[in-house]
Design a protein that fits this description.
39% helix, 14 strands, 7-stranded antiparallel beta sheet, 11 helices, alpha+beta
Length: 440
């Protein structure tokens, strides 16, 4: 399986300028290619092949005065940008045709240099790891890497990311074999909440750390300072980075905590059963800030990824299952209860139940029943598949010369069917006439 390993990198001032130039050139190539494909489809319904597109927006563009500065950066990063466009199109067509699960994916849009987050990718031909621990990037140089852990294998690609807080990261994609842990007999059901983060069916409780709530005072002060700065000034840019660093600290602390909790659960139990919560719906209600702060979706995703890697099982109980209404002793359904009711007495057997613990026991029983009745493998398709690196990141290139499948919605939109790709940033339409100066 392909996994990502991310590390902080510390480029010098000159290397930061080279990276900014490469970010801009990759963005320009992406936008030029997208504009050409839209124009060709609108003109006669034709699709420009990827090879011809690369020749037009990279090879021939370098010979013009308006795009001659494309030759100052690595061509590998520019070609990766075109592969991102191909896969972004295929994401859209897979989404509208039903071949892609999850949230709907829209058409590719133009990228903007004003986006706080920038990224670019190098394949095997564009980077090299030296014995002294430095990362050599084509036409950028040797970049110092903070190696927090060793890579388990030789990477097939590296993605350089500049986040909103001004930090640089290098994300390596490596191919590793699953490492199955010794089997244990323990199985657990988990009921997620806000008062306590999670209650397990064995009676253990995970307290809710509330990282965002604890950092609100500092965040408010940083936001107030930002609001007082004049738009477009350097002081406003500094204040914006200060706000971004405060949010990044909250995010990093939460993810570190989630990794530790999920790793402990996976090591101690053979099977974990969760309820399929409607996190998107809950995040639109009056408890939205607390729901986002809890990170339930990240908790479930990390459990599924680690279970697939270490030979464990994660079962998802449907959200329609009345875990809070059933008595875990006799099975009597006592009916819905408001959130203020934390304890209740079963009307049939008279047992006093803790609401969360009773729900966790019911989730465990339902998950075990589904697992026993399954015809091999997990009940819910895809729950044992990790969030692997996309094929476009692994250094292998798919053939994009053949005609793609065109759906009805895609035909109406006037866009050809292409390949699957990365998320692209929102932006307005760019001006097609090229400018004579390199991007910043």
């Amino acid at each position: 399986m392909h996994l990502r390993y991310s590390y902080r990198i510390y480029p010098t001032k000159g290397q930061r300028q080279s990276l900014a130039r490469t970010f801009g050139c990759a963005r320009v190539v992406y936008n030029d290619a997208l504009a050409l494909r839209k124009a060709a489809w609108k003109a006669d319904g034709s699709r420009i092949p990827t090879g011809a597109l690369a020749k037009s927006v990279i090879t021939e563009a370098k010979r013009t005065d308006a795009r001659s500065w494309l030759g100052s950066v690595s061509v590998d990063a520019l070609q990766s940008s075109l592969r991102d466009l191909d896969t972004a199109y295929r994401n859209f067509f897979d989404s509208v045709s039903g071949r892609r699960a999850g949230r709907p994916v829209g058409l590719p849009v133009f990228k903007s240099k004003r986006d706080a987050r920038q990224s670019l990718r190098f394949s095997r031909n564009g980077f090299r790891l030296w014995g002294n621990g430095k990362l050599n990037l084509a036409k950028i140089g040797d970049v110092r890497v903070k190696w927090s852990r060793a890579l388990p294998a030789d990477p097939s690609s590296v993605t350089v990311v500049l986040d909103a807080a001004g930090r640089y990261h290098a994300s390596f994609v490596v191919d590793v074999e699953p490492e199955h842990l010794p089997e244990v007999d323990a199985e657990v059901g988990i009921d997620l909440g806000l008062t306590t983060y999670a209650v397990l069916s064995d009676g253990s409780v995970i307290d809710n750390p509330r990282f965002l709530r604890k950092a609100e005072r500092k965040l408010k002060a940083a936001q107030r300072a930002l609001s007082r700065k004049a738009k477009g000034s350097k002081n406003r840019a500094k204040a914006r980075r200060k706000v971004a660093r405060a949010h990044a600290k909250v995010t990093d602390t939460r993810m570190d905590w989630l990794h530790k909790q999920t790793t402990r659960i996976i090591r101690e139990t053979q099977a974990v059963h969760l309820e399929d919560l409607n996190v998107r719906g809950l995040a639109r209600g009056r408890l939205a800030k607390s729901v986002h702060d809890a990170g339930w979706a990240a908790f479930r995703r990390l459990l599924e990824e680690k279970a697939a890697r270490y030979g464990r099982h994660v079962g998802i109980v449907p959200r329609t299952f009345p875990s809070s209404q059933l008595c875990s002793e006799c099975g009597h359904r006592d009916g819905p209860k408001p959130l203020a009711v934390r304890e209740w007495v079963c009307g049939a057997c008279g047992v006093l139940h803790d609401r969360d613990l009773n729900a966790a026991v019911n989730i465990l029983a339902a998950g075990q029943a589904d697992r026993q009745n399954a015809c091999g493998g997990p009940v819910s398709p895809g729950v044992a598949i990790p969030r692997r690196a996309r094929s476009v990141e692994t250094g292998t290139h798919r053939n994009t010369s053949g005609p793609g499948r065109r759906s009805r919605a895609a035909g109406a939109a006037g866009i050809p069917a292409l390949q699957r790709g990365e998320d692209v940033n929102n932006d307005n339409v760019i001006d097609l006439p090229p400018r004579g100066s390199p991007p910043s």
